[in-house]
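Repro:
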Amino acid sequence: MSFDLLVSALIAGLLLGGFYAAVTVGISISFGILDIVNIAHPGFIILGSYFAYLLNSKFGIDPILAGIIALPAFYALGAAVYQVYYVSFERRGKEALAGLAFFFGLLFISEVLLVLGVGVDYRYVQAGYIDQNLGKFLGAAGSALPKLIAELPMRMLVPCVGSLLMFGALLAFIKRTFIGRAIMAVAQDQLALQLMAADPIRIKRIAFAISIATAALAGAFLIIIQPVEPSVGREYIGRVFAICVLGGLGSLPGTIIGAMLLGVVESITSTFYGPSWAPAVAFGLLLLTLAFRPSGILGRQ
């Protein structure tokens, strides 16, 4: 086993884990905090990817900037979806099986609409940094970097850094604002939240809308890393729920830890044993975690 190859696999795993964190944060909010099994979340991520693709191909807008531009629209979409879900299922106490079927339907409807609208061809974006490594991107300054650092691919580094910045902003919002603290409280004691003059349904609508808004940026990160087509989101359904459970339901720091751990495990497995083994080893790690620590790494918040 080459030491340099192991280090490269570790670094690649951390970069992949950073991206996984962006993909999973919406599920951590909806499933971990609100107990809403939004299995359609990867579908919203693919919608974010196509939004970034359209702005990039038509107007030359950077995909990450396109994801930021999409945030208000995805927030409004999330608020509308939650309102339909609440009126149709949650208010009637039928959110378990019927609610799950609702989100399954949304996942396949979004996929079919994309197939009808843009086809099944793979789409990709263009940006000056996507095909470069860090050393080339920095120019003369990059020559002073260690070889392993200089060779970091920008198509993985940019989504990882963007993901961590998004996480930092979200954590600051949750910890330092009344709405953020109310979001954490709504899953613990809705009656106490009402006594503080906060409407639990409004708070849940805001939280779910935020979870869908994160899909806009996650979709932009995804299409930077790889070309996308409408069914790509299915590949992430198992991963996002695994990371959410692995880190601890409702724990955003746990989501980062779980995402990084899964990314490293997948990267090392792919490097030394082949990519076909990566999902099996990753989910084996999840099963071991649940066997010895059912509440996840940091426990339910």
